[in-house]
UniProtKB/TrEMBL annotation:
The keyword Flavoprotein applies. This is Flavin reductase (DIM6/NTAB) family NADH-FMN oxidoreductase RutF. The lineage of its organism: Bacteria, Pseudomonadati, Pseudomonadota, Gammaproteobacteria, Candidatus Competibacteraceae. Pfam families: Flavin_Reduct. It comes from Plasticicumulans acidivorans. The keyword Flavoprotein applies. Its cofactor is FMN.
Amino acid sequence: MQTLDLSKAFQWLEPGPVVLLTTADRGRANVMTLSWHMVVDFVPQIACVVSAGDYSFAALRRSGECVIAVPGVDLAETVVDIGNCSGQDIDKFARFGLTPLPAAEVGAPLIAECLAQIECRVIDDRLVEPYNLFILEGVHAWIDEARSERRTLHAVGNGTFRVDGETLDLRARMTKWPDML
């Protein structure tokens, strides 16, 4: 074993796929790239960190709702480019050729080009002030079964990513929670 620089330790604990978070505030839709999130309950409840410096932060605070959209690896460059600019300056949907679709339960738009989407409402904002951490609850979910590219993108730091690989099916071993199969 060798010592690992502590600032790189997070790279071994990436929380899941890089997602796009959409908001709508004062008649304007926005989208941001988000990799700091995790599922905290099966409902689903999702914890996510949205920096106070992000344009989406104020929209999420005011509206209390968003959509978490899961892009496929075919959108990798777009996902990175979305993260490198601010919705304060541009319309990201127009700039990156994304198609906003109406959501069922929230004002934030879905993104037609994404694999799956979860419409969410903020249910707990007590950790926003100290940590920029929002607790969201999914209120409606969507999947596009017709999408041929189903691999997702995983950030491991400093502009590097991993792509989903082989799927291991170990459902038969799930004896403690068979109802989850």
